[in-house]
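Recall from the previous lesson that a structure prediction takes nothing but the amino acid sequence as input. Here we apply that procedure to Ribonuclease D from Nocardioides dubius. The sequence below is the only information supplied.
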Amino acid sequence: MTDAPEEPTVEKTPAPLLALSEGLPPVVDTPEGLSDVVARFAEGTGPVAVDAERASGYRYSARAYLIQLRREGSGTALIDPTLVGEMGALQEVIGGTEWILHAATQDLPCLGEVGLHPGSLFDTELAGRLLGYPRVGLATLVESALGQALRKEHSAVDWSKRPLPEPWLEYAALDVEPLVALREVMRTELEEAGKAEWARQEFEFLLGFEPAQRAEPWRRTSQLHRVRSRRGLAVVRELWIARDTIAAQRDVTPSRLIPDSAIIAAAQAIPSDRGALLATAGFTGRGASRHAREWITAIREAAALGEDELPTRNARTNGPPIPRAWAEKDPEAGQRLALAKEAMTELSEHVSVPTENLLTPDTMRRVLWTPPDATAHELVEAVGEALRGYRARPWQVELTAPLLAEAILSARDAS
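The prediction returns the following tokens.
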């Protein structure tokens, strides 16, 4: 028998690399330079592409160290917000027009800190989710929608460094270069998919975005589950608070002082003096030795707490229990959750939207754990009212309230 000829290998032609259409602009770092930007952007037309660079992983603060803008007829501007002073005039010019951002929730807080607030926005990452793109990073979307490749090699650098190297600035300018064109393509796709109104509601909702404040942020320490005792949890808490306080004072990211692994090791060993502390795994480097006194003080304070002052093993919450505990705590609730998850997965596949964008998992669990006390005839509306109480958008309520109501009824009938 003769072997069949092999299929020829077809190599994918790499997408052309996106380049700056007007060259790299200088960094604006004076009030006078900002005035020129304001005048230039006042003359432009259409929406404004906006991005900001922070020094995550290097600084404690989430402030913006570089702001990038681009508008048709105005070109691109790179602004150093640490040097240009008050930005009220810029806000007056661009605040009333639509902003195009990618992953808006990452940038809106730091932009707000310097007085920049959008009147309306278009989020390309969120649009990608609503459109069912499997990957929604900016580089992926630019290649998928515009057929161009976008460099991303400087995404995790220290943007608080001065002066900023030219390759970093080119990377930053390229982040806003394609946003206007990308928004046009995605806006058309949303219209064609019948999802333009969904996007409008989501973008309007983002205008009121504020980062969530956790009641016990220390519980996010990596590997916390390895700490078995409440006394050990107290050590974690006190060390986390001490580290966070020092990091805020020095404006460095907390993990650069001591890593989470050091906090966990100290909670297990509970060293009582400097020597024992510095012999504990993870307590190496300048941050460990320079602040050894603060670390020991935190550990001793945890060791001196009374039993009633120790943290509970599980976080206190006003919400429902973790999903895996539902079936044991309330079998009918567990059935409601299982049925709802199955229905939401089917809906997600049908409309090509991730389940977490159809409805946040927390909202779904809250409604299902304590469902409305309503008759079968009234249940859909009652569930919708509950969803609206958790700030679900109208399009989400329309799609998901009937599914949750059906899960509630089915579990009720089966019990």
